[in-house]
C-alpha cells in the first residue's frame, strides 16, 4: 500500500490529467484515496484542479470529520465516503464531468448495454444514476444501488463517479467510460447500433475468466437500464423516435437522412428546454 506522500502525488497527477482532457473545468471535480480504514485523503473545495499542489489536499475521517489540512473538503465528500462504505475493496474514488457521458445523460440516453468487447472485460455495464442535485445527500443515495457492483456510474446531468483499487485504476475506469460514450456517439451518427448478444457476452466472460480477470456485472434488463441503441429522443421515457425499434433496444433499418444534423438539433432542443424549466 502506498504511503500518504505517494497518494498525494498520485491525486495531483490524476487531477491534472482529468483537467487536461477537458473532463473538469476550474474548480469542478474531486478525487480521493483511502489512507487506512478510517482516514481519507481528498481534494479541497474551491480549488482549480489543474493547478492544485500536494499540500492542498485534506484528510477527513470516515464520517466526514476534518482531521488535517487547510480549507474545506470537497462538497461531494459524502459521495466518496458512501463509495468506501459500500466497497471495502476499493482504494480511490474519482468524480469528474466527462463531456459525452454527461451529454448522453442530458439527452436521456443511457449506456448500460455492452457494445464493445473490451467493456465486458474491464467495466461491465455502465449504469446511469437518477438525477440528484450536486453537493447534496441525494447524490450518495442515488449511487448506492449501483456502486456495490459497478466501477463506473454516470450521474444524470451531473458527471460520473469511478472507483478502483488505487487512484490510477479509478482514473482508468473514467477514461474507458468516456471512450465508450465517444464510440457510441459516432456509431449512432453512422447508422443503427447493435449491442452484443447475451451469447457473445457470455463467451467474452468465459475468455475473461480464462485470463484471470474479475467477472464484471452485466445488466441484462437492457430496455430499462439502457437505450443507447435507440435514436436520440428529446424526452426521457418517450416512445423511440423510430417506431421500428423493438423491445430489445435495436433499431430497424429505416435511418434518418442526416443523422449528424438531427442529433445536434435534438441535443440543442433538450438543452434549451432544460434552461427554460
UniProtKB/TrEMBL annotation:
Pfam families: Aldolase_II (PF00596)
GO (cellular component) term, any one: cytosol
Keyword tags: Lyase, Metal-binding
Segments forming domain Class II aldolase/adducin N-terminal: 9-185
TM ranges: none
Record's keyword annotation contains Ribosomal protein: no
Molecular-function GO terms, alphabetical: aldehyde-lyase activity; metal ion binding
SUPFAM superfamilies: AraD/HMP-PK domain-like (SSF53639)
PANTHER family: 3-OXO-TETRONATE 4-PHOSPHATE DECARBOXYLASE-RELATED, FUCULOSE PHOSPHATE ALDOLASE
Protein name: Ribulose-5-phosphate 4-epimerase and related epimerases and aldolases
Organism whose genome encodes this protein: hydrothermal vent metagenome
Lineage: unclassified sequences, metagenomes, ecological metagenomes
